[in-house]
Amino acid sequence: METMLNNVIEKQIELNAPVSRVWRAITDHREFGEWFRVNLAGSFEAGKTARGNITWPGYEHLVWEAVVQVIEPERLFSFTWHPYAVDPSVDYAKELPTLVEFKLEPTATGTRLTITESGFENVPEARRAEAFLRNDGGWTQQIRNIEVYVATKP
């Protein structure tokens, strides 16, 4: 399922893994880094900035940075970040970030994971469409990455 209304990206998948397993893949910084392709320096803590080098081929020169917002065990993990912040000469700190939410719900066969990114209306108009398009494709890839990750690393 996918929604692109009102400057919101939403991806949803049912994973054949228990909520506890999916939760660990999302909130353990080492596991998150494996499937998300970022080498994070430390654990996720609400109110703190998480950062590390991107390990995705072609983007290794970039630093991934997000501010953890909410950690509600086995239900909700969220952070804010600057979408498609790929130009090292731009100071994205002047922009309002978007909000990324990972919501988990138990199902009969595993876990429904919904990833939502909202707030694109706050991205400067000159880069809004590109940021939305790139992140929409990025979340499509990341949902596949976590599906393979939890299936192969129970």
UniProtKB/TrEMBL annotation:
Q: Which Gene3D superfamilies does the protein's record reference?
A: 3.30.530.20
User: Where is each Activator of Hsp90 ATPase homologue 1/2-like C-terminal domain found?
Assistant: 16-150
Q: Which domain of life is it from?
A: Bacteria
Q: Mind telling me which InterPro entries this protein's record contains?
A: ASHA1/2-like_C, START-like_dom_sf
The family annotation for this protein states: Belongs to the AHA1 family.
Q: What is this protein called?
A: SRPBCC family protein
User: What is the organism of origin for this protein?
Assistant: Acidicapsa dinghuensis
